[in-house]
Amino acid sequence: MGNCLTGDVAGGKQAIGGVQQMPTSTNNAGQNDAVDFFFRSRGQYPLFSQIELSLSASNLIDRDITSKSDPMAVMYLRKKDGNLEEVGRTEVILNSLNPNWIEKITVSFQFETVQTLVFHVFDVDTRYHNVPVKTLKLKEQDYLGEATCVLSEVMTKPNRSMTLNLHGNFGAGVSRKLGTLSVQAEETIASKTVVEMNLRSVNLDNKDLFSKSDPFLRISRLVENSIVVPVCRTEVVDNNLNPIWKPVCLTMQQFGSKDTPLLIECLDFNTSGNHELIGRTEKSVAELERLCQQREAINFVYPSTSHGRNKVLKGQLIVDRFVEKVQYSFLDYISSGFELNFMVAVDFTASNGDPRTPSSLHYNDPSGRLNSYQKAIVEVGEVIQFYDSDRRFPAWGFGGRTADGHVSHAFNLNEALYGDEVVGVEGIMSAYSSALANVALAGPTLFSHVVDKAAHTASQSLSQNSPKYFVLLIITDGVLTDMAGTIDALVRASDLPLSVLIVGVGNTDFTQMEILDADKGRRLESSTGRVATRDIVQFVPMKDVHSGQVSVVQALLEELPGQFLSYVRCRNINPVGAPAI
Amino acid sequence: MTKTLEIDIRSAEGLKINRRLIKKKKTFAVVKIGEKSRSSDLDDSGGSNPTWNFKSEMPMKGSVQFISIEVFYRTRCGRDKKIGEARIPATDFMGRYSHEGHLNFLSYRLRDEYGDKCGIVNVSIVVKPHSTETTTMFMASSSSSSSETPSIDGYRGRIVTGLPVWRVTT
């Protein structure tokens, strides 16, 4: 029952929605630049549009003892086999039974399929301050209820919003009133403009009894029909009537257009969850820019019902800095001349099975049927040929005993002494077949040598200052012998323009790979004490692809744009030839 | 050979004392190379995820094996107590994967005096090239275009001159 007494107050005070965004937002289940570009180039235009859902709930039940619930909503898609696949989560709101969540969940609205959305609402009892919402374990939270709806139903309602009743089975036969959940849908506009502002206030009113107010700002967008959609929230500054907040970064998706009116409310934070309104003002982004340039301040207004006129307060909002930036997307970089270079490494360890037996993953079928590795190479090869313009791939094998009798963990697949490149997918296939005939399967399964080789290539290109990004594809049957060595090699390579995509063939247990993929938020740590700078690994199990759950393109390219952008953005590398910002 | 290091101690995560996350303590970081050390300002918001963005330039002799980053917190009485320390081996920012002028983003595990894990510190390090060499910055500046004059790569713009030495055995 963790924090059921007061809730995680520090978590409740943190900024939501407006702080410097990570390159990949966690709720972006819909759009992947790289995948869309791949399909569009083949004339397959996607029949969907991106939708952003804002959630709010009312009359939730109270599961905490001396305070109110800290609710968070999780959205799932119900798949064809009935399983739920998580699409996204909102943030956690402190002490509220009527939460209005700020974090939006994006989903692609596919016109021709029936998309069943399932929402689960939880009361978060564990700490969530500075913890990515994605990593909170749902099993540890209290369940508050669930609701189901169909996406097309939401889209066809007049305001594109729907209110659902929450239901849930708590075991006791009595059906309790669990409250309602409202879903508001809006189309997303892919836009590159990002606005960063430094806001501060002076002379705010004191709303607390024994100390000063703890003010924070909440910025909302006014949509048609006076619907208010909260967009972001600054952090709480304790005990200060002249607060200076950390810079707020808003994307055009969040503020609509530069002329859309934004409602800026200044509230006094209370741990009970009932934040008192200090004052509010309505300004568009263009007006805020003007305020900054002319060094003016705007007074807050307190809505007053008795006089019919709003009371103008002494408290003022000042914009210290206003910067408009362009955030380039993955496609912008690729189309400007950034090269993606792929490298392939194939597993030649004995765990694959003797190539002469039909059950082996390396089986050389006389009838010409492709074995698991060949299938994987062909499917993956389609994607990498598309993005690697010169179609020359360094190809290596590992874990096999070569002609000179030694077991090598990074031998050239084309068995040439110098030059490890093959041309095209057919090059990889022929090199693989001939290597299979000449190389004896041995062991153990080590990735560290091929990762080091790839890292070496990537670092050499750095010294030539050319805009290149490298992707190492490792096709393996799964069980790693030297986890620590592999982690060390990956951590050493984590600061380079390199991504590692591990493709798993066969049916083994791939939990080790999930650890390397670090999607749950635990950064890889090497044995020397160095921690990985960023997550550079993406794991794709081929059996998921073959069972039809996800296309190979989708699975392979899922994390690549995000990993690429995390590298270029933190170094302020712009697309080739783009003007410096 | 003395080089100049530009170190930016950016932030730390998950700072713990006695295995518990710290709350409301103001922390600061100190970078130490040999005997010289520089300290950052206090992080005002306190807590276990401070952001310092403390940039400093320090000279580093070629013989230095590692630099150390220490994180302290200030008690109410004004005393500074150490939370933990991380050691950055020089090979991590000089050597095989990174050359001079490359902006290295590195993160390290902090360990306290008992050897327990007590957080992660994020730094970025640039080894400044010598002023006598032509300073072509390898930090990919936003205005760099890929169509620069090629060929003299790896030598940072200098022309290499040398006299071939032949050895003919008769």
Beta percentage of chain A is 25-35%
What's the total count of β strands of chain A? Answer: 27
Structural class of chain B: mainly beta
Low-confidence stretches of chain A: 21-30
Molecular structure report:
The complex is a heterodimer of chains A (581) and B (170). Chain A has 581 residues and is of the alpha+beta class. Helices cover 22% and strands 31% of the residues of chain A. In chain A, helix 7 (372-387) packs antiparallel against helix 8. With 170 residues, chain B is mainly β. Chain B has no helices and ten strands. In chain B, the strands form three sheets. In chain B, strands 6-1-10-9 form a four-stranded antiparallel β-sheet, with no helix packed on it. Chain B starts with a strand and ends in a 42-residue tail after the last strand. Mean pLDDT of chain B is 78; it is low at 132-157. Classes of the chains: A alpha+beta (581), B mainly beta (170). Strand 26 of chain A pairs antiparallel with strand 9 (104-111) of chain B, so a sheet runs across the interface.
Features:
heterodimer, A: about 575 residues, alpha+beta, B: about 170 residues, mainly beta, 4-stranded antiparallel β-sheet, about 0% helix, C2 domain-containing protein (chain B), C2_domain_sf (chain B), C2_SRC2/BAP (chain B), C2_dom (chain B)
In short:
The complex is a heterodimer of chains A (581) and B (170). Chain A has 581 residues and is an alpha+beta fold.
Ordered list of secondary-structure elements with their pairings:
The complex is a heterodimer of chains A (about 575) and B (about 170).
Chain A: H1 9-12, H2 33-41, E1 48-58, E2 71-78, E3 84-89, E4 105-110, E5 116-123, E6 142-150, H3 151-156, E7 161-165, E8 180-187, E9 193-202, E10 215-223, E11 227-233, E12 248-251, H4 252-255, E13 261-268, E14 276-284, H5 285-293, E15 297-302, E16 311-326, H6 330-336, E17 339-347, H7 372-387, E18 392-398, E19 400-401, E20 407-408, E21 411-412, E22 421-423, H8 424-438, E23 440-441, H9 448-463, E24 468-476, H10 483-493, E25 498-504, H11 511-517, E26 530-531, E27 537-541, H12 542-546, H13 552-557, H14 560-570
Parallel strand pairs in A: 17-18, 17-24, 24-25, 25-27
Antiparallel strand pairs in A: 1-4, 1-8, 2-3, 2-5, 5-6, 7-8, 9-12, 9-16, 10-11, 10-13, 13-14, 15-16, 18-21, 18-22, 19-20, 19-23
Helix pairs in contact in A: 7-8, 9-10
Chain B: E1 3-13, E2 16-17, E3 20-21, E4 26-33, E5 36-39, E6 51-60, E7 66-74, E8 80-89, E9 104-111, E10 117-128
Antiparallel strand pairs in B: 1-6, 1-10, 2-3, 4-5, 4-7, 7-8, 9-10
